[in-house]
């Protein structure tokens, strides 16, 4: 029984491991050349949109080489309030802004991992409500870059943005 449990645990761990896969035949929409590091490498400027992004998801911290710790989750209202409480003009991005981070050539993190390391392969909130249902808001699923409606009372991750100054 112990061997079976260990084998099951090893298989589960292998399934959960993170390995971004990119198609070399698709031109990168979010190549490294598009981004510039700011503020001791904790912020990233998107030179295409002019937006400034927090490098790590809320709950994570920049260690000097990567985003460490566990990304926090929030319901939609708490995500918006947390962003407001951060000050310094940080906010939850609208759906178009959040979609601008998606790297269409990759999955198992559909984002530039050089500039946004350890992005959770899960749902990230936008500030955009969903027009067809007042109980929903738009999210981006960074496993594959897809966006969809998500119940506002569910838990999602947050990456904050602000306009360049």
In short:
It is built from three helices and eleven strands; from the N terminus they run H-E-E-E-E-E-E-H-H-E-E-E-E-E.
Give the oligomeric state of the chains in this entry, treating copies of one chain as homo and distinct chains as hetero: single chain
Q: Count of DSSP helices? A: 3
Give the radius of gyration. 17 Å
Binned, the helix content reads 10-25%
State the total count of DSSP E strands.
11
Question: How would you characterize the largest beta sheet?
Answer: 4 strands, antiparallel
Q: Give the overall shape.
A: globular
Low-confidence stretches: 1-16
Distance between the termini: 61 Å
Going by helix content, strand content and strand pairing, the class is alpha+beta
Tags for this model:
globular, 11 strands, about 160 residues, 3-stranded antiparallel beta sheet, single chain, disordered N terminus, 3 helices, 4-stranded antiparallel beta sheet, alpha+beta
């Amino acid at each position: 029984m112990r061997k079976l449990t260990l084998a099951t645990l090893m298989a589960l761990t292998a399934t959960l491991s993170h390995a971004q896969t990119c198609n070399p035949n698709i031109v990168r929409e979010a190549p490294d050349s598009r981004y510039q590091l700011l503020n001791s490498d904790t912020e990233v400027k998107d030179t295409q949109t002019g937006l400034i992004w927090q490098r790590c998801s809320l709950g994570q911290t920049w260690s000097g080489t990567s985003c460490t710790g566990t990304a926090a989750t929030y319901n939609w209202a708490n995500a918006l309030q947390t962003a407001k409480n951060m000050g310094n003009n940080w906010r939850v991005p609208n759906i178009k802004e959040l979609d601008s981070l998606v790297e269409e050539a990759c999955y198992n993190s559909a984002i530039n991992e050089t500039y946004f390391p350890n992005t959770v392969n899960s749902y990230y909130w936008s500030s955009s409500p969903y027009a067809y249902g007042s109980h929903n808001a738009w999210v981006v699923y960074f496993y594959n870059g897809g966006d969809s409606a998500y119940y506002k009372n569910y838990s999602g991750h947050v990456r904050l943005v602000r306009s360049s100054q």
